[in-house]
Design goal:
The protein is mainly alpha-helical. It is built from 10 helices and 2 strands. A two-stranded antiparallel sheet has the order 1-2.
């Protein structure tokens, strides 16, 4: 879902860059209460997994691929402000070391995946589940799946607004992508919660072992990543052909 150089006009690029900078400053302020020292190792583990998972594109039919965004998982386990910082770091590393996206659109990508997606997922999850600790029950799993799906739809709508069109194509791609996001998020959530001891659940911490295992498995999957364009690239190609 990375916007690349040339996809946004100059005014939108400037506005999104300024908006991204303001949002990042707010995230630093908000994360002070959401990130106690005991959660830092788990945050780094989950962030590493999300960074790797975003590089593994899965072919999902309809001529395009998708990957885990991970904003909903991070937001539900660590809070939206901390998630904004994590996603900002992930997106910056992807641009700097992998050339995924561009520096000119980093602000826009951060607003879509690092602000809209986590806040929508977090708000949806808390609205339906309150302040309950992560538990492996039908209600929480169903709510997580719904929150993950809605987060991708919201991010897709945000992208379409920035582009000034292509809403139908982007929402279709976002729907398919959202289903993939929900499935992966539920699997990761179940693994992490199932691996936690009672003490970790009570203190709101995540066990590191499943996060390390997830990162290792994802690293092994990198050579098998689909070469098809992702949902955003496909939607833009379809929109150009139909014009």
């Amino acid at each position: 879902m990375h916007l690349t150089q040339g996809t946004l006009d100059t005014s939108t690029t400037l506005l999104t860059s300024a908006g991204g900078a303001i949002a990042l400053a707010a995230a630093f302020y908000g994360a002070r209460k959401q990130l106690p020292a005991k959660k830092v190792p788990a945050l780094l583990g989950m962030s590493a997994f999300v960074f790797l998972a975003q590089m593994v594109n899965c072919s999902i039919g309809f001529g395009f691929s998708g990957h885990l965004v991970g904003a909903s998982l991070l937001a539900i386990f660590f809070g939206p402000s901390v998630t904004m910082l994590s996603m900002a770091a992930i997106l910056a590393l992807q641009v700097g070391f992998l050339g995924d996206g561009s520096w000119s659109t980093l602000g826009a990508n951060f607003l879509n995946m690092g602000v809209v997606a986590p806040w929508v997922a977090y708000g949806c999850f808390r609205l339906l589940q309150g302040r309950r600790a992560p538990q492996l029950d039908v209600a929480q799993v169903g709510t997580l799946a719904f929150a993950s799906f809605i987060s991708i739809m919201a991010a897709s709508l945000s992208v379409s607004v920035m582009l000034g069109g292509s809403i139908a194509h982007l929402l279709f791609a976002g729907t398919v992508w959202g289903l993939l996001e929900s499935a992966i998020a539920v699997a990761v959530f179940a693994l992490c919660v199932r691996s936690q001891s009672r003490n970790y659940v009570e203190t709101g911490r995540l066990a590191l072992r499943p996060l390390v295992a997830l990162a290792c498995v994802t690293l092994c999957l990198l050579p098998f990543s689909s070469q098809q364009p992702d949902g955003l690239e496909h939607a833009l190609e379809v929109a150009q052909l139909s014009d």
